[in-house]
């Protein structure tokens, strides 16, 4: 299986995305972090424009979405999603991350998303650190 990353996906994935974000079995492990993220930055919402969907944060935060898509034999499957935003001139926060644990190891998919978010952020002038909200303590990765 090959992987690709996209900032929006076809609306046919709306139900899969909803299940991944809002009904993910792994959420129980991060319940307190999810509640804190929603209280501090707003809840994720699925937005549709034409035949494309993305995820945004309810409120005034200008967030970015990165989807992990698996491709094989002409078919595609939604494997994961990451929602992040620029906190200030030097730091971005990876606020929500959800992966399809049924098809691949969750740790592997999570790492792929984090690495791709870091790669994306390298292109944004001034961003030096990526903080991951769901860790037991604030985890900050250097962007370089």
Summarize this structure briefly.
The protein is of the alpha+beta class and 144 residues long.
Question: What brief labels describe this structure?
Answer:
144 residues; Aminopeptidase; 26% helix
Overview of the structural elements:
Strand 7, helix 3 (106-122) and strand 8 (129-132) form a beta-alpha-beta unit. The protein has 3 helices and 9 strands; from the N terminus they run ββααβββββαββ. It has a single domain (2-142), classed as Aminopeptidase, CATH 3.40.630. The strands form 2 sheets. Strands 1-5-6-7-8-9 form a 6-stranded mixed beta sheet, with helices on both faces. Helix content is 26%, strand content 40%. The protein is globular and about 40 Å long.
For this structure, the CATH topology is Aminopeptidase
Helix content: 25-40%
Mean pLDDT: 85
Structural class: alpha+beta
Radius of gyration: 14 Å
Strand adjacency order, main sheet: 1-5-6-7-8-9
Number of strands: 9
How does the SSE layout of this entry go?
Blueprint: E1 2-6, E2 9-10, H1 14-22, H2 31-41, E3 44-49, E4 52-57, E5 63-72, E6 75-86, E7 91-99, H3 106-122, E8 129-132, E9 139-142
Parallel strand pairs: 7-8
Antiparallel strand pairs: 1-5, 2-4, 3-4, 5-6, 6-7, 8-9
């Amino acid at each position: 299986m090959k992987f690709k990353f996209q900032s929006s996906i076809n609306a046919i994935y709306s139900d899969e995305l909803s299940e991944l974000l809002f009904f993910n079995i792994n959420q129980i492990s991060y319940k307190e972090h999810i509640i804190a993220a929603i209280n501090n930055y707003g809840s994720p919402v699925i937005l549709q424009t034409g035949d494309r969907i993305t995820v945004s944060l309810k409120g005034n935060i200008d967030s970015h979405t990165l989807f992990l898509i698996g491709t094989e034999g002409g078919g595609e499957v939604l494997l994961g999603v990451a929602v992040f935003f620029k906190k200030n001139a030097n730091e971005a926060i990876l606020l929500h991350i959800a992966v399809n644990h049924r098809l691949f190891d969750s740790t592997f998919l999570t790492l792929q998303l984090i690495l791709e978010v870091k790669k994306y952020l390298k292109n944004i002038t001034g961003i030096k650190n990526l903080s991951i909200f769901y860790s037991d303590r604030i985890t900050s990765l250097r962007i370089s």
